[in-house]
Every structure is written in C-alpha cells, then in structure tokens.
Amino acid sequence: MNKLILVCLLCLCPVQALAWERTMTCEPPNCGDKTPLPTYWEDPCVAFHLNKAGTRKMNFADVQKIVKISVDAWYHPDISSLTPHLSGLTDEDRVGYNPYIDQNANIIVFRDDEWTEAGEMMALTTVTHRNSTGRIYDADIEINTANWDYGIVEKDGKNVVDLQNTLTHEIGHVFGLAHSQNLEATMFPYSSTGETNLRSLEDDDLEAIAAIYPPSGNACVFRDGTFQKPPYDMDEAPVKDEDCSSQPRTPHTTPLWLFIVAMGMLLRRRTASFL
C-alpha cells in the first residue's frame, strides 16, 4: 500500500488566478506505468445521505438545513447536468465502498468523539474511483467536530468553523474537483474560523462543472428515504444462502489510498482507487 502526501503552504506573495483543476487517478511521478486520468461520475445524478446522529455541537435541524443548502449550491441546470440531491438520513457511519454489492451510499458524517487524521484538518472527503477509467463509484465526507467547533457564523460568532463554508467545499471534491489556486473559488484550499467565503460557487467553480458535466437534457430521478447500514463489512461479500440467488461481483484489487493534505487551516481529500 503506497501513500502520497502533498503539503500545501500558504504564502503572502501574490498568487496568480489559476483555473480549476480536476482530481486525477494518480499524481506524477507516483503513477508508475499508469496514465493519470481525471475522475468523474458516469451518472451526474449524485445522491447524498446525512448520518442521523448529527453532531452534539449543533442543532440537528440546523445541520439538515445547512447540508441541503450546501448540496444544492452545486446544482446549476442552466450550465451543467450535475444534479446533487440530499436523499435522506442514514445510520451508516463507515467510509468506503463495497465492490461486491449495490448497497453503497455517499454519506456525510460528523466525528465528535474521535478523529484519527491530522487534528488541523477541518474535514476529509474520501472518493473511490476506478484507476483504469477515472469513474467515481462512491464518496464520503467526514466533518472534524472532535477538534473544531462548528456552527453558523451569523448565529455563533467568528470563533466557529462555519459548516456551510466547509461542506460546500468538500462537496466539490465529491464531484472530482481538486483544489484551485483561484483565491475567489469555493475550491480554494485554505480557510479559517469565522470565514464564509466558500459558501457559494464562483466563476471558477461554475466553469468546472460546466466542462466536466455539460448539459445533457436527461432528468434525474432519486429514490428518497433512509439508507440502512448493510450488515457486513465494507470489503465483505454477502453470504449466499438458499434465499439468495444472486452472485457477488468479481472482487477488485486491494484499494490504493492516495492522501492529499492541505496543511494549516483546511481540508483534506483522500481517494481510494482500484484497478
């Protein structure tokens, strides 16, 4: 299992407004003989489920409202076919993708009690894609409420991390966007307590989704409701019994974890890939 850590340092020198960037299946020079490919959702209809435990640091009704606003911020049908949707609640709290089954969900979960990653990270998005194509199969967002006080800046003051600010940024990673060096972009990789600049999409972000997910004319149909946590591990195939005639899918290779770290004040994106 290989790991790549990239450290991004913020300096006070002038920064040129660069265009948006995509998350690739690998980052040179760590690709070996593989060709880096951009990641993407084959179906631009992307559903999310919010973990019903929420966080002890915020009212759950406020959390639900903010999650929906943050998801909807990426919906711009006039320029893009990308259609994100908050489908309901879930008791699933595990990050990852089970290649044996169709029962996978893109979850948003708060980590109040334990955060196993670097404490300075405000959030972490884990995206699972196929190395050979770049197709995304699953994406999960974890919010670091163990180390950071989250809230609503207008309500709780400038000392909290604004949930909408962080979540709107993280959702961009779900769709295959990497960090942008455009200071105005939602995908700019730095933030601080009290900031709300990342809540809304700017031209850089809109250009990205318009290019990656151009209008198609197809309508999305979502099956809303609660997603129940499957009774087996993420890499475990369902046990076949006399009542189950379906066969598990061919297993993929062991995931390769790619860590991309934005040190200092913000967010981290992690991608899991398989051949």
How would you explain this protein's 3D organization?
The protein is α/β, with parallel strands linked by helices. It has a single domain (45-220, 255-274), classed as Collagenase (Catalytic Domain) (3-Layer(aba) Sandwich). 14% of the residues lie in helices and 19% in strands. The protein has helices at 60-72, 153-156, 163-174, 203-212; strands at 45-51, 83-90, 107-110, 123-130, 136-143, 150-151, 161-162, 256-261, 268-274. It has a seven-stranded mixed beta sheet, covered by helices on one side. A two-stranded parallel sheet has the order 6-7. The chain starts with 44 loop residues before the first strand and ends with a strand. 37% of the residues are buried. Residues 1-16 and 243-268 have low confidence and may be disordered.
Concise account of the structure shown:
This protein is an alpha/beta fold and 275 residues long.
The rounded distance between the terminal residues' Cα atoms is 14 Å
> What fold name stands as the CATH topology?
Collagenase (Catalytic Domain)
Give the averaged pLDDT, no decimals.
Answer: 85
- Coarse shape: globular
Overall number of domains? 1
Order of helices and strands: EHEEEEEHEHHEE
CATH architecture: 3-Layer(aba) Sandwich
Would you state the CATH class?
Alpha Beta
The CATH superfamily is Collagenase (Catalytic Domain)
Number of helices: 4
Lateral arrangement of strands in the main beta sheet = 2-1-3-5-4-9-8
Uncertain regions: pLDDT < 50 for 5+ in a row?
A: 1-16, 243-268
Strand content: 15-25%
Could you tell me the radius of gyration in angstroms? 18 Å
Major sheet characteristics: 7 strands, mixed
How many strands in all?
9
Q: What would you call the structural class? A: alpha/beta
| Helix share bin | 10-25%
